[in-house]
Amino acid sequence: MADSLDHRADALIRNSFYEASVTRAADDDPVLEGMHEVDVCVIGAGYAGLSVALECRARGLSVIVVDAHRPGWGASGRNGGQTLVGFAKDEIFERQLGNQGARAAWAMSVEGVALVRERIERYGIACDFTPGYLTVATKPKRVPDLRAWMESATSRWGYDRLSWLDTDEIRARIASKRYLAGVYDPFSGHLHPLKYCLGLADAARREGAQLFAHSPVIDVLRGARPIVRTSKGEVRCRFVSACGNATIGNVLPADIAARVAPIASYIIATEPLGNERADALIAGRAAVCDNNFFLDYFRVSADHRVLFGGRASSTGASPLQLTEEIRKRMVDVYPQLADVRIEYAWGGFVDVTRNRAPDFGSIDPNYFYVQGFSGHGVALTGIAGRVVAQAMAGESAAFDLFAQLRHARFPGGSALRGPVLELGMLYHRLLELF
Ligand SMILES: Cc1cc2nc3c(=O)[nH]c(=O)nc-3n(C[C@H](O)[C@H](O)[C@H](O)COP(=O)(O)OP(=O)(O)OC[C@H]3O[C@@H](n4cnc5c(N)ncnc54)[C@H](O)[C@@H]3O)c2cc1C
After folding, report:
1. Superfamily covering domain 2-78+194-259+355-415
2. Would you tell me the crossing angle of helices 377-392 and 91-122 to the nearest 10 degrees?
3. Which of 354, 377, 400, 418 is deepest in the core (most CB within 10 A)?
């Protein structure tokens, strides 16, 4: 399963606008060979792993990061770039942790966006960060849900930056008749995800972390001094942090891995539309996301394309097959884009938990994992890295807040998880028709 998922993920990245719009160094990081010794071994060079590396280096710990591919190969190099506060399903926090816990978690999610902005500044990462975020409702029955969410965020979870937009106001901001209401957040925003990830990788190297590419971790021998074994070498360390996301496979114990299911999500990029035409689509070029179960998310890139994402699937169908379907969804929003060419289409696996809350935990006191960002990882992964590094330093209050969340396993084992999920999604798709 893990292996075929890895291959499917590889196929999904081939026609990525992000890969086409960055210049990677001529040589990848070296392959890990032989025996190494450090304080911390991080598995995965996405945002989460790189954040652990940066935070550990800031605390004087020596760090090795090993990736099965290379930095930004996973979701961190493919996503919608939406950099936002909150969680995929905010109510879970209040339900499981009470109001105080929910407020603390929300404050950390806000710190997550602040951390992205701070790192961009501190490390000079040119990744086109643009502030402004619109959450919108397309259906009458979803308008009260949006209103209730905004009221909870404001009065129960302590976030006072949101403003309500009625139908006229949202239509003044988005040149589409599809939206009935919206909530504007000036602090959240969007960025070029792969540029951000490669910038974090550069920063981690500069801060003294050693990065290795094309070095898949095969297993972790647990103990007082764990050994992380890769295809050609091994790392002996004091702490392990597993940040391999949806494709980590059977490195983690089966009961932990079963808390996450890989759901493919796809994005298309239009041809460049020119400054004026692109500006006319969304006021201030804010990012947009609707509040449906199968949501559409879109934004305008720095080179004036529309990047439009959506269409969840557990099977990872080829994005080429889905290009026309997503293009139609984009034209539903913007009929004025019916004539534009689609130049790129790609996808990736979102690591989703059953309750849509992130899953942080420890397998042993010196072996941490973070997973299940459920489509809200751009900002939250930064915080995940910070709280893991704090926990390694013995300050575990923030880590424990998340680790208290209860997570159920997906049914069906690794072979059946896909088909079972597909059935569940079909059910939700039917509900959305009404
Ligand atoms: C199409 C798509 C759109 C999305 N849109 C958004 C969005 O707009 N906003 C948002 O907040 N979130 C979004 N997300 C989610 C977000 O991208 C992720 O939550 C986040 O990038 C997860 O980061 P990560 O570091 O945990 O994992 P990844 O970036 O997936 O990194 C994991 C790394 O671990 C490596 N790895 C895996 N297994 C092993 C192993 N055995 N040995 C060594 N290395 C291994 C992989 O090669 C990979 O590089 C989206 C995701 C997708 C796929």
Report:
1. FAD/NAD(P)-binding domain (3.50.50.60)
2. 90
3. 377
Q: How confident is the model at residue 1 (pLDDT cuts 50, 70, 90)?
A: very low
Q: Distance between CA atoms of 141 and 360, rounded to whole angstroms?
A: 33
At residue 354, the pLDDT reads 92
* Amino acid occupying residue 432: E
DSSP three-state, residue 374 = coil
Give dist(CA 244, CA 381) in Å, integer.
Answer: 12
Out of 229, 314, 373, mutate this one to test ligand 1's pocket (max ligand atoms within 8 Å of CB): namely 373
DSSP class of residue 89 equals: T
User: Closest ligand 1 atom, CA of 351?
Assistant: 19
Query: So what's the pLDDT on residue 18?
Result: 98
Distance (Å, whole) CA 218 – CA 232 = 10
Rounded to an integer, the average pLDDT of 275-302 is 95
Domain locations in the chain as residue ranges: 2-78+194-259+355-415
- In the beta sheet, which residues pair with residue 182? 136, 165
Instruction: Output the residue whose Cα is nearest ligand 1's atom 11.
Output: 376
Instruction: Provide DSSP, 16-56.
Output: -HHHHT----SSPPPPP-EEEE-SEEEE--SHHHHHHHHHH
- 424 has a pLDDT exceeding 90: no
Q: What are the pocket residues of ligand 1 if the criterion is a CB atom closer than 6 Å to any ligand atom?
A: 43-49, 66-69, 73-76, 78-82, 216-217, 243-245, 247-249, 251, 265, 267, 297, 309, 347-350, 373, 375-378, 381
Handedness of CA 3, 5, 9, 10 (dihedral sign): positive
Average of pLDDT values for 183-201? 98
Report residue 231 as tokens.
Answer: 């295809």
| Cα distance from N-terminal residue to C-terminal residue, the chain | 35
**Packing angle between helix 193-206 and helix 91-122, nearest 10 degrees?**
60
Structure tokens at 281: 């689509």
**Ligand 1, atom 52: nearest CA belongs to which residue?**
79
Whose tokens are 């028709």? That residue is 433
- Residue 310 pLDDT: 86
